[in-house]
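Lab notebook page, bench 4
Experiment: in silico fold of construct C2
Operator: M.H.
Input chain length: 52 residues
Purpose: comparison with the prior construct
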Amino acid sequence: MSKYVCEVCGYVYDPAAGDPDGGIKPGTAFEDIPDSWVCPVCGASKDQFRKE
């Protein structure tokens, strides 16, 4: 699974770690995250992430 980086703040979403504080379980592919999810650091929308 690929990592994705927030183009606003540089946060890297790692599927192996997920985003437990945001309700995303470890092992969740970026494509499987709900569109309503936002960057846990800056609040950018999912469409502001690019594949690393």
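Observations: The chain has a mean pLDDT of 97. Strands lie at 4-6, 12-13, 49-51.
Next step: discuss at group meeting.
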